[in-house]
Amino acid sequence: MAMINSSGWRDRWRVCLSRPWFAAAAVTAAYAAFLLLYLMRHDFQAAALIHAGGIWLIQDAVHTPIPVEKNALGYGGQFYHELALDPLTLSPRKYVRLDLPAYRQQRILYPLTAWALSLGGREQLVPAMLAVINLVSLFFLAWLAAVFFQRMHFPLWASLCIPLFPGFVFSLYYDLPEPMAAVLLFSCLLCVRRGRPAWACLALSFGILARDVLIFAALAIAACWLWDNLRTKFSADRACSSPSHGMSGLKWYTGVIPIVVYGIWQGILYMKWGRLPSDEVAHYVFAAPFTGIVDAVRSRMDGAIEWRRELYDAAFIVSMAATILAALPGLMRTGLLSHEKLLMVAHAVLMVFYSAVIYNHRGGIMRAAWECQALACLSIFTWSRPAGITASLGWIVMGLLLTFRQALCMPA
């Protein structure tokens, strides 16, 4: 009887380990533990995640309820906190002024959600809600990644490379919107694979309001739908005119409506601020091809960046390049759908145009690279299981190491 009970317990444990929710719970528990360790060093104040800089402090807001680093630039979380207090503000009314108002407000979904959950932007609740949203988003991202990997018959544990990607560590510890955007992007991709184009369209439309870069996903989906229909219409060989694999999950509106949403929101921002978000950031976010990488390497060789962060950055950039280069040769014969392949290539190309500001900014390139790395890992798995396992394991280890370093307030 004891042997039977033991066998039954092991069977139930194996079933639990094979469930996507188990991976999601494990990721959330790890992030929550490290976040708790971080907050312990800051008297359990969720406002410590905002990282406000004194340079942007409004003169009248001398007594702020959030910690402010004097003579510092701070981090993006301070602007999302300000918007969460009043998401549709025409001018800052609380503590910090927006450095790039159109650019910050185009990613409205994250602060707007925090505003709603904090019962209309209550100051004592907003910092906690910003952190809770990211933690919950990472839970759903881990669940979606596990479902995605299981659907493609990959090991469940390997899906942890998606939610544990190093860029999300910075997003969690600095109150940034990437986890929410990642959830909406993976929801879109999964809905397409399941033949639910309307839900995919809805997820992507919201995703663009969380992170503007998701416009590339909408463009990729629209381009693949158009190409597939043109090929079907004009192909002389009827045997080759059936839609390509996975295109049944695409409709014309799946990519077009998110593009329209993006255009309308950009127009509203232009009327509100007198300039487009791209006008505010293009001159320092983008540069000539590869010049950003070269300048970033030069700044590290000159000793402009602290050596421990330099080593980690070098390991990340080398791993990132290796993952992309490993994925590209087998891209055409992978199990990725056409729009997923196009999206990965688009982000890989985009990365060579990023300026040194992105490569040198704390966590900038890590946060900018997550779409490309996630799709690259999936691509590698579809044509080489050992290579995919190696890539996934490497990113899981790097993510956990960076999470631990951030939790202890150590430079990364």
Written overview of the protein:
The chain starts with a helix and ends in a 5-residue tail after the last helix. Helix content is 66%, strand content 1%. Helix 6 runs parallel beside helix 8. The longest helix has 26 residues. It is mainly alpha-helical. The chain has a two-stranded parallel sheet with strand order 1-2. The chain has a domain of 279 residues.
Give the arrangement of secondary structure elements.
Elements: H1 2-17, H2 20-40, E1 52-53, E2 68-69, H3 77-85, H4 101-106, H5 109-117, H6 126-151, H7 166-173, H8 178-193, H9 197-210, H10 215-234, H11 252-273, H12 277-285, H13 291-301, H14 307-327, H15 338-353, H16 356-360, H17 364-368, H18 370-383, H19 385-407
Parallel strand pairs: 1-2
Helix pairs in contact: 2-6, 2-19, 3-5, 5-6, 6-7, 6-8, 7-19, 8-9, 9-11, 10-11, 10-15, 14-18, 14-19, 15-18, 18-19
